[in-house]
Amino acid sequence: MPENFRSSKLYYFSILCNINFIFTYLKIHLFLNTMKPKKIEIIEKNLVIKWEDENISNISLIYLRNECPCAGCKGETVLLKAYKPPKIEKATPNMFKIKNIKIVGGYAIQILWLDGHNTGIYSWEYLKDLEKGQSKNSPQNYNELL
Predict the structure, then answer these.
(1) Which of 6, 38, 56, 128 is deepest in the core (most CB within 10 A)?
(2) What span, in angstroms and rounded, lies between the C-alpha atoms of 44 and 25?
(3) pTM above the 0.90 mark?
(4) Which residue has the higher pLDDT, 34 or 78?
């Protein structure tokens, strides 16, 4: 490794990326071992999740869609450049209706909305965060990431 590489910004950035990866890996695996849903269903205008510990999460479909975690809805950062998607100008009723839900890798769900949107992956942990955010009537904060 070149001597001046260790003093470069790229070196420190790669260390931060590795630390973030390890933290995320541990966080997901700890979470996977503690909480999984027993039942997921749509009741009226809510996603209702019954967890293994018998707790029940009740998340409004409007809030669930508005907090879709995909890059097209919330934005993303690629090579230190932030992308923020345009605001939705007009909501349609089909935006807030679910056509199908699939389990993804035993750690999340992917929702196919009736308007065709399907790129959001909602982890079990994120769904619990949404439940808390909804009760506080606050959107998720993505500004730290972008």
Answers:
(1) 128
(2) 35
(3) no
(4) 78
Class of domain 38-135: alpha beta
Q: At CB < 8 A and 24+ separation, what contacts does 42-51 make?
A: 42/98, 45/96, 47/98, 49/127
Which residue has 């345009």 as its token pair? Answer: 86
Pairing, β 56-60 against β 46-51: antiparallel
3-state SS, 31-54, equals HHCCCCEEEEEEECCEEEEEECCC
Q: Tell me how far apart the alpha carbons of residues 142 and 133 are, in angstroms, rounded to a whole number.
A: 13
- Residue 38 to residue 33: CA distance in whole angstroms: 14
Domain boundaries, the chain: 1-34, 38-135
102 burial level (CB within 10 Å; 0-12, 13-18, 19+): exposed
Phi/psi of residue 49, each to 5°? -120, 125
Looking at the predicted structure, is the pLDDT value of residue 68 above 70? yes
What distance, in Å, lies between the first and last C-alpha atoms of the chain? Answer: 31
